[in-house]
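User: Earlier you gave me the apo prediction for this protein. Now I'd like the version with zinc ion bound, so I can compare the two side by side. Same sequence as before, with the ligand SMILES added.
Assistant: Got it. Here's the input I'm using:
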Amino acid sequence: MEWAAYFDERTETMPPAWTRRLEEELLADQVARCYERSPFWRRKLAEGGVRPEQVLGAEDLRRIPFTTKQELRASQEAEPPLGDFACVDPVDVVRVHLTSGTTGKPLVLGYTPEDLKTSTRIGARSFWAAGARPDDVLLHCLNYSFYTGGLVDHDSLEETGATMVPAGLGQSRRLLELWDDLRPTALFSTLTYPLYLAETARESGLDPRALGLRKLIVAGEPGGQLAGTRSRLQELWDAAMSDTYGLSDVWGTFAAECEERNGLHFSGQDGVLVELIDPESAEPVEIEPEATGELVFTHLAREATPVLRFRSRDLAEILGVDCPCGRTGFRFRVAGRSDDMFRVRGVNVFPSSLEALLKEHGLDRFAIVLDRFPVEPPVEILVEGVDGKEEELAKAVKAQLGFTCVVRGAALPRTEEKTKRVYRVYDGEERP
Ligand SMILES: [Zn+2]
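And here is the structure of the complex with zinc ion:
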């Protein structure tokens, strides 16, 4: 069956000037509502010396100070559950989700019925771009409890018309037993789950390539766009993989790769305004090809728990502002977390780039030790199993990543949590 190319053609292919008009209209309303209903946002605007009626476009928005997760958390601790940045009466909230932060207490995010509609629509545009269609039988294999990856993404995927199978996690064997009855054609999961499911299939005597799964849609993790990971997954399942991106503090999923697979298209046009800033100086960075910076988000249509100029700590590299598919949402890749990035004599270094380089040499366990600030070369890099290849690796790092380092072999700690890559010894962290 032939399907339309877009879920929402008008919004997704809007000329940039129209998108700006739409953003400006929605922004003025959002800021006015925040000012009227929330002491938190009244304080923020006062700090920037700006009146709500003066915020008419992205330029004016820069007068409002940034918001950090710590501030939102403090607001919720002082006034549980939603904090004084919330803009609705609690009785109007029909659902809450938690942020899935790896550190600290999660935030409680509220949704009104209108908020759910907005997130569903934005998510559906993203998942349609990623390949979900009404004739798919789609396995949703993320954790359904608490986080937006569960119900919020489920609603968005269902909105595409796909037949949803709410499998969740911990059901892999059962899923394989039921496979012939369900005949799934698409899978939505973390980046690593398809590897695990393929292994479980093999243990049950099944060949993953013969199971008929044709689409792998993965929830954003740095690495989702690494060529090696993609080809491995595609090969394993004989399926096409599309990466997606979302941030629970903002909306569920609001960017995804289209069939060109040349970066994540931003698809939150009428729900969030994006700024790019230099993570160290906080100066604005133009959204244009090859620009790199931290993503900063401002809601355009959030009723319950809106944020203005929220620093995501996610670093993006802009890959383009147009695409053969016709979508006009800018394209980007997530280069890592700004907490992980460091600078050596003007060169920005992301652990994800080092990870990709080491993978080419068959190595993947490493740690970067920074013992002084500003960071001066040579940078110390500890690599497990490097035996004898220290010099060769240091040369490759210099040639490909542009900074001088010393590579040493080391046994590195193993944890269940997210792997720690950067150790800021100058900041009081212990060496691994
Ligand atoms: Zn495209």
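For your comparison, keep in mind: The longest strand covers residues 310-320.
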